[in-house]
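Q: Give me the 3D complex with S-adenosylmethionine.
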Amino acid sequence: MKNLKAPSTSEEFDKSYQALITPWGDVRIPQELKELAETNKPKTSLELGCGLGRFSSFMAEQGIQATAVDFSPVAIEKAKQRVANYDHKPTFIVGDVTNLEILTEKFDVSFDIGCFHCLNEESEKKYVSEIYRLLNPGATHLIWALNASPSDIRLTPEYIAKIFDNSFQLAKAKFSRRRLVSSHWYWLVRK
Ligand SMILES: C[S@@+](CC[C@H](N)C(=O)[O-])C[C@H]1O[C@@H](n2cnc3c(N)ncnc32)[C@H](O)[C@@H]1O
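A: Here is the predicted complex, encoded as structure tokens.
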């Protein structure tokens, strides 16, 4: 695995998205995301690292005002084209999850399916402070992340609780085999 270098910059992700399929192309809507929409009943949602945007499209179809960010302009362009004729579509934005000053409004929920594990430790801290700024108090941030991150950080519930500690409470962590890899779902509640 060490020899297979995962993409980490926006240029590297652009190249992946120029291909017909990406290695992370599981387009099924996770039950955890469905429950976030059903249980929390958010009016607004923010997705970090949305890629081709299928998960935020699902949120928009539920009547939620969905905003989705990714730093790959190729992914965002493809995401926009895919929903061009949809009645309910997300707002897709090219942006870096470590600096989202382009966004100023507060969101009811946020989620990240496969982006957090791309970050190094310095970027993780900036990400935490940005979603803290962008979420309403009590709002849930849902993450799905690999245990063995491509950025070489071992992501465990203990690690996540510590990184988010000052501004979020780790309400729940659940082991997952999504995409057949050892990973976790994390539910973090903004303090
Ligand atoms: C493994 S892909 C998952 C994409 C999508 N969530 C999915 O499951 O299909 C990770 C995504 O995070 C994005 N990403 C990684 N680091 C980012 C950053 N610092 N800012 C914004 N997006 C980032 C990548 O461009 C890529 O689209």
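A quick observation: The pocket of S-adenosylmethionine is lined by residues 13, 24, 49-51, 70-72, 75, 96-98, 113-115, 118 (CB under 6 Å).
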